Structure formats: structure tokens, C-alpha cells
Amino acid sequence: MSNHYPKAIKHPTAGIIVIGDEILKAQVRDTNSYYMCSLLYKCGIKVKKISVISDSVEEISKEIRDASSKYTYVITSGGIGPTHDDVTFEGLAKAFDDKLYYHPKLVDIIKNQFGAKDPLSPAYKMALIPKKATLKFNLNIRTGKPNAYPYIVLENVYVFPGSPIFFERSFQGLYEDLLSVTSRRFVKDEVFINAREEAFTNALSTVVKEFANVSFGSYPVSNYRYYKAFVTIESDNEIDTESAKRRFCELNPAHILVKFDRTPHVNCITKYSNFLQSCPHRRSFYEQSLEELRQFYRDSESVSIRVDGGIESSIVIHLAHICRVQSNSSDKLRAVYFKEKRTSIHLEEFIKEMIDKYNLAVCTVEAEPDKSVSELISMQAHLRTLLVGEAGEDGVNEVNRGYAGASNTDRLQINNPLRNWTNEDVWSFASSLSLPYVTTTTTTTA
Predict the structure, then answer these.
(1) Distance CA 20, CA 233 (A)
(2) What are the distances in angstroms from CA 396 to CA 303, 310, 326, 338, 391?
(3) For residue 373, what pLDDT is reported?
(4) What are the C-alpha distances in Å from 223 to residues 185, 430, 446?
(5) CA dist 92 to 74, 86, 110, 157, 407, Å?
């Protein structure tokens, strides 16, 4: 077959350098590179390489010099501070045959804003930067005021601190700048498939050959109820991406393709209404559950939802989210996470995902029988109702046995809005709306 493809657009590139022995020794988890990649992608910038290197002047210098010659942007994180192993500025200076000096503006910040009055204080090491470097103060998007501390720029190299709190705040400024100067974007779509990779390998191989300007990725997923794999389809323009997706779907049996929504919280009222129309025989049942949640949220500050990674807790949170959107409330949904001593990484990541998607204010309580709810009550004096999700069960007794002593039952009402739901009700609602959940064995491999 003959196809016409728009000419591929050349995107700016980026190299990321993560600096720190603590990363290589697994003493600290690197989250900065993930954060960078997600924002750079939105700017239409291709990340070509991520390096994790030690606190060595020679290694930093070599990596920066090499990356600077290859990529449009080079971004480093880590190695900025007052201690002996903070040598990023030294490596940066050596990479560009420069010398270090005490930048007067940084000296002023360290003296007057950081309170380091003693000129011999180790803090002044953070003011010792290459002479050719410049300071970049960006506006804090929360306050509208310039950040207290800048990031450092030398040629096409951008240097940031390693602490995620300070890094993300500072990098947000660079992201806003790049977003305004880069006009090229990626256009990506996904196809979700309820079959293993071998079922669609031939179709994928065909579209890879037919669409030269399109990138494809295939990702199997284990132990997930909605689908077994997903395929990403990405190009520089909507025409190529849509054409490639349509062709790929045509080449596969319709019954293995799954309609899945990564953002069920967006336009939730419309999606909920569409779901009700699809099951008229159970419409009043689901509406009754939503109305019960609405009654609880007449006093929203006294209500919290137990989030545990299960699909039932996600349903309660989603219903409460619908109530909040319907009432035009900007208040955060309150949730409580009873944290076990051994918690899977997947569950921790899931909690973060739920916080971001549903704008949750989560209170984390160490899960010790007969103490957890007492601690929760002491931490949240306003709390009167704890909502739990347990299909086909009372739920109240289960929580009382697990967490609440007899002295707490008068102080805290525990209610299960899903007590009349069957497993069929749960999965009909959850799968139609693509609600997130987690299992301890859920893994995704590339």
C-alpha cells in the first residue's frame, strides 16, 4: 500500500546527569530523572541519555563535556552543597576550562537569607561557582515571587540541587521557560489489549514497517484485571499518530482491544452519567450509593476515607470525588492510610498516584491493632466518620476488629457505603470507569 507521511520534525535533545554516590549505593532513590523526563517530554524535548555518576570531579567533568557536545540541553542534579563530596561546580568548571570564584549574589543570599554570618562557614561553598556561569532566578508558581535560590547555567548546561523538594521547585522554572521556547510537541496515543504480546506481534511488525515516522512501544503488564498489555503510538503530528493507531486496530481482532481511561477523575460527572445509561437496570442502585456519600459530605471536614490499594476503596474515593465536583467544592478529600510495617513499593506509588489524581489529603497512621484509630483520632480531632469499602460485607466490624478499640466506637463512626454491593457491582463500576487499584504483585516491564 502507498502512504504519504509528513516530514519528521527534528526535536531538541537532552542529556540528564544524576550525580551522587548515595544514588549508586541505593541509599537514596532517584526521583529527579523521572520528574525531568515527564516535563521535558511535554516540551517536545527528546531525552537521549540518563547517566548516574559518582561524586568525582574527573567523572563529572568528562560526562558534562561529552553530553554538552551531543545534546541541546544538559541537566544535572546533585552534588551541590557544603560538604566535601559536593563537587559538581568543580567538575563543571573543569569541563569548560574555567575557574571558580565566589559569586557576590550567592554570597549575599547565603549570608542574609541562609543566616551564615561566619565567612568560614561551609555554607559558602555553595557560592563558589565557575566564572562563566550565570544565575537564573525563576518565579515560584505558588507565590508568584522569585525563588530564593537560583539554578546555575553555563553554556547549555543547567545545574540543579539533588534534594527532590528543592530540585522540583527550581526545575519547574526551567520547564516553564522551555515550554515557551519549544514549539514542537509529541503526539502520543495508546491501545490497551486484553491479550499477551504474541497475539498482536505480527500486527505491530506490520505497522512499524508501514509508518516510518511513527514510534511504537509494547509493554506487557502482569496481574492487572483490565488489560494484559498496551501499545504506545507516537509521532510529530496527529495525522500520523491517528492513522497508525487506526491501522493497528484494524489488524487485530476487535475482541482483544480494551477501552481504558488513564484519567477517570477528569470529566467524572459525564463519565458517571454515561455509565448509568449503560446499565439502566442498576441505575437507581448506584445513584443511591452516591446519594449516601453526598449526605456524609454535607460536613466534609469530619469525613475521611480509608485508602488501602483495593478497588473498593478506590470506588469510595471516586464517588466522593464526584460529590465534590458536583458541589463545585475546592476542598481536598480527606483519606487515611493505615501503613503496615512492610509495604510494597507498588502500594506506596499507588498512594501517590491517588493523591495526585483525586487531590487527597492523606493522613498516614502506623497500623498497630488497638492503637491505629486512637492515633488517627488524636491526629485529626475533627474526624467523626471513617468510610471504608468492603463489597458484600458490613465492613464496620472488620475495621473495629482490626484497628479500633471499644473506647473509640462512640468517638468515631465507621461506615461502609459498599455494604450492599456485589462483586459484580464492584467490577462493573470499576472496569467501566477504569478506576485504579493495586495488588502486591503488580509489575510492568518494558
Answers:
(1) 35
(2) 15, 16, 28, 15, 12
(3) 67
(4) 33, 16, 15
(5) 11, 12, 21, 9, 62
CB atoms within 10 A of CB 212: 10
Q: Are 152 and 65 in contact (CB under 8 A)?
A: no
Backbone φ and ψ of 414, nearest 5°: -110, 125
Residues 6+ apart with CB under 8 A from 194: 226, 227, 228, 256, 257, 258
Write the CA distances from 287 to 9, 329, 421, integer angstroms.
49, 20, 12
Q: Quick check: pTM over 0.70?
A: yes
Distance CA 445, CA 443 (A): 7
Please, are residues 258 and 195 in contact by the beta-carbon 8 Å criterion?
Answer: no
β-sheet bridge partners, residue 47: 14
Q: How far apart are CA 364 and CA 366, in angstroms?
A: 7
Which grid cell sits at 58? 574527573
For helices 283-296 and 311-326, the axis angle rounded to 10 degrees is: 70
| Closest by CA position to 64, among listed 45, 33, 90, 38 | 90
Report yes or no: 154 and 132 within 8 Å, Cβ to Cβ: yes
On whether the CB atoms of residues 365 and 375 are closer than 8 A, the answer is yes
Which tens digits make up the pLDDT trace of 40-59? Answer: 999 999 999 999 999 999 99
SS3 labels along 172-236: HHHHHHHHHHCCCCCEEEEEEECCCHHHCHHHHHHHHHHCCCCEEEEEEEECCCCCCEEEEEEEC
Residue 143, pLDDT > 80, answer no
Strand order in the sheet with 134-136: 46-53, 13-19, 73-77, 157-160, 151-154, 134-136
Residue-wise pLDDT tens digits, 244-272: 999 999 999 999 999 999 999 999 999 99
Of residues 155, 132, 152, the one with CA closest to residue 78: 152
Burial class (CB in 10 A: 0-12, 13-18, 19+), 97: exposed
Three-class secondary structure of residue 136 per DSSP: strand
User: Which set of grid coordinates corresponds to residue 252?
Assistant: 487485530
Kindly report, residue by residue over 107-133, the tens digit of the pLDDT.
998 888 777 778 778 888 999 999 999
